[in-house]
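Known limitations

Files may contain more than one protein. Parsers should not assume a single record per file. Below, a two-record file is shown to illustrate correct handling: read the sequence, read the token line, then continue until end of file.
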Amino acid sequence: QGNYSHPQHFSVGAILINEKNEICCHHFVDDQLKGYWPDLGINGLYLLMRETPDLGEKIDDTLTRGLQEEFGAEAKIVDYIGSIKSHFKDKEVEVEKTTIYFLCKLINQDLSRRGSDIESKSNLEWHTANFLIPKMREQSQKYGRTDIDESEILERFKKLRF
């Protein structure tokens, strides 16, 4: 985790797709992120799955854990999509965040398996990349944070042939 003494952060992310190639995402609205974000209102915040590895945890284990805790999902890794480097302020500290993303195909989903982290409070929705890309760009501009704009990874996803 990025903090004052170590302002770098690393995460593993997923584009989880179903049989229709729709993407599973978090949609936080109203006060679901109370204490973390200002009032989100009805438009809310759209995010892909992103998980911070535990110390010594392998990347694929982080991905598996994140999919289960955040989406209640089991999935097969299909491909590596790339990474995004972003920056945001956390209590007056400029944090550099690197997230690597994998394309994952849904095997099954059981929402009762979601964890108890803040991400488990989101509404889970399935959308197309074309729907999510402008939403993520808008929210990044609204909040002035590049770490919530995952549109670049979704653009790469659109170019894939699988």
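...continuing to the second record:
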Amino acid sequence: MAGYWERFRGGPTRPVAERVHVTINAKGVITFNRNVRKMLGNAEAAFLSFNKADCVIGISPAHVEHDDAFPVVDRGNYWLINAAPFCRCFGIKVAKTEKFTNPSLDPDGTLRLDLTTTVSAAVRPRKKGFNG
């Protein structure tokens, strides 16, 4: 069969109560939902780390008073970390908002965000019909 199949990597839509939702945008802002906040122990700040070999961002809970800690900002329905300095330092660039498809917690309590397995979460205007 001739042709090329492109697999959808976003997965099915899960109930809101079960979702683990983390995104990063072009400005270096990492946003996440309540479930991710719980995974991080409801910390008010976080340490950011980067594994260059695997292209994985690590987020671990921290005390807000620590000089290297990034504040976790409460926006009501979601939380964010302004990671722009971190992204600049490690050359992390995304053109548009990207959703991490498989965020996971490692045994040390670090949230692992794999930059090689993201999908676009950018909002696009609706089109009439399919234009491919």
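Parsers that stop after the first record will miss the second one. For reference, the second record is described as follows. The helical segments are 34-39, 84-90.
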